[in-house]
Amino acid sequence: MTVGGIIDALSAYNRDTTARLAINPFFPMAHRLGGVEKSEDEHGRPVVYIAESPEAEQFPLPPAVAVALTWQGPVEPPPPPRRRRGATGPNAGQ
Length: 94
Known about the structure:
Elements: H1 3-10, E1 20-23, E2 29-40, E3 46-52, E4 58-60, H2 63-68
Antiparallel strand pairs: 1-2, 2-3, 2-4
């Protein structure tokens, strides 16, 4: 993703909306952002790094966000437990 792509994606939201970084699809967590730094990659091209907050506070990622990011499928609640049926047949209850 490029800086332009990030700007385009974020331009749909109010400037006062909190931004967090979603990390690790296998253990989804949200991290507070702490800063932006420019550097270069191994080929001398510019790269921008988005850093985690110095407080390093993280939160569980809401399941709906993990689903929207396709990190996991929708999860259905388990069905209610079924009552056991009594025995039937010629020797029932013996």
